[in-house]
Specification:
The complex is a heterodimer of chains A (665) and B (270).
Chain A: H1 5-30, H2 42-54, H3 65-90, H4 101-130, H5 147-172, H6 183-191, H7 197-218, H8 226-236, H9 266-274, H10 280-284, H11 286-289, H12 296-309, H13 311-315, H14 335-339, H15 346-350, H16 357-371, H17 378-389, E1 419-422, H18 424-429, H19 431-446, E2 451-452, H20 463-467, H21 471-487, E3 492-495, H22 498-507, E4 516-519, H23 520-529, E5 545-547, H24 561-571, E6 576-577, H25 605-614, E7 620-623, H26 626-639, E8 645-648, H27 649-664
Chain B: E1 2-6, E2 9-11, E3 17-18, E4 25-26, E5 32-34, H1 36-52, E6 55-61, H2 67-76, E7 80-84, H3 94-109, E8 114-120, H4 131-139, E9 142-154, E10 159-166, E11 169-176, E12 179-183, H5 195-202, E13 207-209, H6 211-214, H7 251-264
Parallel strand pairs in B: 1-6, 1-8, 6-7, 7-13, 8-12, 9-12
Antiparallel strand pairs in B: 2-5, 3-4, 9-10, 10-11
Helix pairs in contact in B: 2-5, 3-4
Classes of the chains: A mainly alpha (665), B alpha/beta (270).
The complex binds iron/sulfur cluster (2 copies).
Chain lengths: 665, 270
């Protein structure tokens, strides 16, 4: 067969040239972004790439991900077949039959099988989009049932059909040397009309050729660009859990935050080209789920659209005309969307290609707060209170140690006290959280832990400020705190609140402060394991307990088992799980500074979470964070579920201890 | 036209306690803040600047460290900041203070017409609400106190119409320029400084004027020029509260207890 090699060569050259030009045009845009180190630690990066890109670890977390896994690996294997096809089209003498027969047989066997798998997977994918489409496939500007989506599926299906047509025809004509290794193609051969085998061969060959070339041309212009970018994106992913925002320096003449697309880092821009529009982040996002205008997927999509739309201007060294932040429109993020984020990190956790959505939102918040001084008005008080009184409520700092009034005050003294008990603002000022502080102190005493507090010298850690994008103030408070900790020679810290935990442990590290920070639930679990706290697991007074994972304890800091273990030790049974728990836990709605903001749009996040908890008919909802405590208690009140209590893990332990004492006494 | 905003650095009174033995304020370690009412005065000055392109000057009489307050005003966008600081100014009551501030405004008026002076309604440390009116009287400016809304500002006919917030009612008044306003918190929502402005304010110029600049008779200012003396400061005794009902009281019963109590204390008439 001589299928017009010259025509094919010309078409292939044109397609490849177009492909390279398109890819160059797009990728060169990425270089308009700001610098960011993402090439260090190649070994660790390689491992991430193997796990997430090749083993598709995240993809497989959803059942239908298996379908993608099949398509991905088929693509990998068929890349060899398609490579041969292209080469052979130009140089007819080059083909896999030049390889040793065993290898040749094996490869064609594999292609045959894999092509069938792909065909089945594509049919399933078609069906999913057409018949059982999950709602999260649709976003405002990208629909699950889009022409593009179906076109790509059709391309792949046609490639498979053409493959079988071509090889079936070859087998039927007796021109396939390893036909016996190709069961499916052989089967197809039996169905082909004997009279027009040459015609089938020719049509199949050209169908395969044209679809393949069209695919190559189309690829860089579609969301299937991720075929090119997803693998490198996994290599370039953040090596740490990426929820800790990078520092900013404050010098005159600088810009702060991200107000236009080129202010993002090149990796942020590359992320936007890697999005597969799978919608998993959107399905996990508490803001999206409760009808807020935020959709993390759309944030990423807006960055891509904005970059492309403004590309001409950027190439000419200007800023583009399509605003990055402004009124609703494709390529623009609204301020309402930006302020809706609870920084829960569920989007980051869900993304199969390791896109970091939430940090991009914080970067835009920084622009709004620091450059524009524009933010929801409730935050003005918060910012002023933080700056003047170092706590969100603006209560006089002198009242910080009042919770301790029922106990003996224990100042932290380096060398004499082992742990600094960093009480935090909620634990110091919020009346409900103060009870938790007292419970914690009681448990620590029962275990003979040596602890002390900073009293009125303690300052707010600044968590809310950082998540709200007020990096300037956060930076000031962080530096003050770091200095205070150094001055007092603090090395080991217990925090009551997961927000303090993350800030002291992860954020302050950027300031060169390495502390051993533990959340109370971790420490308590350790003390139980060491036998320093002896519980007999017989406290049934709290009834059926459901545990809600606080985002900043669980997802952000990986503490899942300790609180569950502590509950089990006190009550004798493991807590009941909510539907979304552990890594997939659903936010209470208070993170990211949302604690201090009104929630006007959509359903309240805490209502959604409380409903989920109530579905299990618990007597007690157990939390391990003062914000979650407030949100859950408020939610229960709003829902009229007056018979359900909210307890902190440490209160469960404290009550367990107390009841044991009582029984003894 | 120049808008002059008078600001004062005050101790954060929520953090001030009174030493029960000596009956004096414990000021040690208490941070200073911009008098909260003055932040609204600054904001209104800046709004006039935004609308009419006026220039805004912030002036403050106080010790050298009051400069911090003026830097905050600079970070918010005022064009000029002047600290009136001299040991002769120290120990002033409201009379002597208004004299120094009025002299400074007159001095400013030599370079540029002063059409509006804005003060907070009062300071949270002195709570007298006398300085603003004192300045207006000395300068022969129209005097509009307790302003909670600027209804109209007509540059051409040199008139201002405002709403005053009085107890239980509002009053709308109009006055010719030049005018002095004292403002309440409802007037506006102060802006928040941007980071570039904060950074710029760090080494922006704060002009320092002492009495050599104002040339006032030292017997009429500061402690010497102050007829008022503070003889004693004390916390009033407050009767101890009482808890009605307990955690098991139903809301309806709790409300009834409260009503009974109020009737008993003659706080409620049926
Ligand atoms: S961090 Fe949470 S709230 Fe914010 S976009 Fe991601 S999933 Fe949504
Ligand atoms: S950002 Fe990630 S999770 Fe979200 S739609 Fe894109 S690929 Fe999917």
């Amino acid at each position: 067969m001589m299928p017009h090699n010259a025509i094919f060569t010309a078409l292939l050259s044109a397609s490849l040239a177009f492909f390279c030009w398109s890819v160059y045009r797009r990728f060169s845009l990425v270089l308009h972004g700001q610098p960011e180190e993402r090439l260090d630690h190649p070994a660790r990066r390689l491992k991430e790439m193997l796990l997430y890109a090749f083993a598709q670890m995240r993809v497989l977390k959803k059942p239908f991900g298996l379908n993608h896994f099949v398509i991905f690996w088929s693509f990998m294997i068929l890349a060899i077949a398609n490579g041969e096809f292209l080469l052979n089209g130009v140089f007819p003498s080059v083909s896999l039959s030049l390889l040793p027969e065993g290898v040749h047989r094996f490869l064609l066997f594999a292609f045959d099988l894999v092509s069938l798998f792909t065909l089945v997977a594509i049919v399933l994918a078609f069906g999913r989009r057409l018949i059982v489409k999950p709602p999260y496939l649709d976003s405002l500007y990208v629909k699950g049932r889009s022409v593009e989506g179906f076109l790509i599926l059709a391309f792949i299906a046609l490639l498979m059909v053409a493959y079988f047509g071509l090889h079936g025809a070859l087998i039927a004509q007796g021109r396939e040397s390893v036909a016996s290794a190709m069961p499916i193609s052989s089967l197809v051969a039996g169905f082909l009309p004997a009279g027009s085998l040459g015609g089938v061969e020719l049509v199949s060959w050209w169908l395969h050729a044209i679809v393949l070339l069209a695919f190559i041309c189309f690829l860089p212009h579609s969301k299937h660009m991720h075929i090119l970018t997803a693998i490198p994106n996994c290599y370039l992913g953040s090596l740490d859990w990426p929820a800790t925002q990078p520092r900013e320096t404050f010098e005159k003449g600088q810009l702060f935050g991200v107000g236009s697309v080129e202010r993002f880092t090149w990796k942020d821009l590359f992320d936007s080209f890697s999005c597969t529009e799978c919608g998993r982040c959107q399905a996990a996002c508490p803001a999206t789920c409760t009808g807020k205008p935020l959709n993390p997927r759309q944030i990423v999509h807006a960055i891509k659209t904005n970059l492309l739309e403004n590309s001409q201007a950027l190439r000419e060294g200007r800023s583009g005309t399509l605003p990055l932040i402004g009124d609703e429109g494709e390529g623009t993020n609204t301020e309402d969307a930006i302020w809706s984020c609870t920084t829960c990190g569920a989007c980051i956790e869900a993304c199969p290609v390791l896109i970091e959505q939430m940090p991009k939102i914080i970067k835009m918040r920084r622009h709004l707060v620091e450059t524009e001084a524009r933010f929801p008005e409730e935050l003005l008080n918060l910012f002023e209170n933080m700056e003047q009184r170092s706590n969100p409520w603006g209560i006089a700092p002198g009242e910080r140690a009042k919770w301790v009034s029922t106990m003996e005050v224990r100042p932290f003294v380096a060398g004499e006290t082992e742990y600094l008990l960093y009480v935090g603002c909620a634990g110091s000022f919020d009346s409900r959280a103060k009870q938790v502080t007292v419970a914690l102190a009681t448990v620590l005493d029962a275990a003979g832990v040596s602890w002390g507090i900073l009293g009125k010298d303690e300052k707010c850690c600044g968590d809310s400020l950082r998540r709200l994008g007020n990096e300037f103030l956060f930076d000031k408070m962080a530096r003050e705190n770091v200095e205070l900790f150094r001055e007092r020679k603090v090395t080991k810290v217990i925090t009551l609140c997961p927000h303090c935990l993350t800030t002291l442990k992860n954020d302050y590290r950027q300031y060169g402060l390495e502390l051993e920070v533990v959340h109370q639930s971790e420490l308590v679990a350790r003390l139980i394991a060491q036998g320093r706290i002896k519980l007999d697991g017989s406290d049934k007074s709290l009834g059926k307990i459901s545990y809600h994972d606080p985002c900043y304890l669980g997802r952000h800091n990986g503490v899942f088992d300790a609180p569950r273990g502590a509950i089990e030790a006190a009550t004798g049974s493991a807590p009941q799980e909510l539907e979304r728990h552990g890594r997939n836990s659903f936010c209470c709605g208070a993170g990211g500074g949302r604690m201090w903001m009104e929630e006007f749009i959509g359903e309240r996040v805490n209502h959604a979470r409380v409903d989920e908890a109530l579905a299990g008919n618990p007597d007690t909802i157990c939390v391990a964070c003062p914000y979650c405590m407030t949100m859950m208690e408020d939610g229960l009140k709003d829902k009229g579920a007056n018979n359900v209590r909210v307890k902190d893990v440490i209160e469960v332990v404290a009550e367990g201890l107390m009841r044991k004492e009582l029984r003894k006494g | 036209m120049l808008v002059v905003v008078c600001v004062k650095q005050v101790p954060d009174t929520t953090q001030v306690q009174i030493d029960p033995v000596t009956n004096t304020l414990i000021r040690e370690g208490v941070p200073f803040i911009v008098n909260p009412y003055d932040t609204h005065a600054i904001e209104e000055g800046l709004r006039l600047k935004d609308r009419f392109g006026f220039r805004v000057a912030a002036i403050s009489m106080g010790p050298p460290n009051a400069e911090a307050t003026l830097r905050k005003a600079l970070a918010l966008g005022v064009d000029r900041a002047i600290l009136l600081s001299d040991r002769f100014f120290g120990g002033a009551d409201t009379l002597a203070t208004s004299k120094v501030l009025a002299a400074a405004i007159e001095r400013l008026a030599q370079d540029e017409e002063v059409g509006v002076v804005i003060c907070g309604k009062q300071t949270i440390d002195g709570d007298t609400a006398q300085v603003g009116p004192g300045i207006a009287t000395r300068l022969h400016f129209s005097q509009l106190t307790l302003v909670d809304r600027v209804e109209e500002f007509d540059e051409g006919s040199r008139k201002i119409r405002v709403r005053r917030k009085l107890e239980g009612r509002h009053e709308e008044v109009q006055a010719p320029l030049p005018v002095l306003l004292t403002v309440v918190r409802e007037l506006n929502r102060p802006r928040y400084p941007t980071v570039p402005m904060r950074l710029a304010s760090v080494d922006a110029k704060v002009e320092l004027w002492d009495n050599a600049v104002l040339g006032l008779d030292v017997n009429t200012i500061g402690l010497k020029g102050s007829p008022t003396w503070v003889s004693k400061i004390f916390s009033p005794q407050r009767a101890k509260g009482e808890i009605l009902g307990d955690s098991s009281t139903e809301p309806e019963d709790a409300a009834q207890l409260l009503i009974d109590k109020m009737l008993e204390k003659d706080l409620l008439a049926l």
